[in-house]
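Minutes, project check-in
Item: structure for the 194-residue chain
Input as provided by the requester:
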Amino acid sequence: MPHGKLLIFTAPSGAGKTTIVRHLLGKYGQLSFSVSATNRPPRPGEEDGRDYYFLSTEEFERRITAGDFVEYEEVYPGRFYGTLRSEIDRILASGRSVVFDIEVKGATNLKKFFPDNSLAVFVAPPSPEVLFQRLRDRNTESEDSLRVRIARAGEELSYVNSFDRVLVNDDLATALAEAEAIVGEFIGVMDAGE
């Protein structure tokens, strides 16, 4: 089985990409999750090195200057997220394929950086209205924060045609089955047991 491929999953917040990525990681042992770096503080239950590499703003900026990031983005004012080159190298050296759960602009940058051995999948909601309602239903944001997320999600939806595949997450079971088919074909397996 060929190794060293990169699966880039992206979507506006609330579209379901993290749920899909977690499912795929449980199904395919050939995949490893690329842990992103951020300068935001950990949320309850999050662990450094598992959920994110939590860096201070100063450390994040130092690593930008040092060229340690393949891509990074100021996703929200003062909040940076990025992919460390060392994280990709670590996974590829293990003989596995890399799976990214990443914001839209970062995904476009990753695809440009790795055009030949990557597959970029945009997880789309059935409609913008459904997405905005999902964000509201989370009840994890202040009103101001929710407005910022909804505005950003609206902008990110305009990128839908910039990716190799679009996976509409209307019905979760259907979306998971379609994601399995996309990934199985790309990494060269037809069944999780292979």
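Outcome recorded: The first strand starts at residue 6 and ends at 10.
No further action items on this chain.
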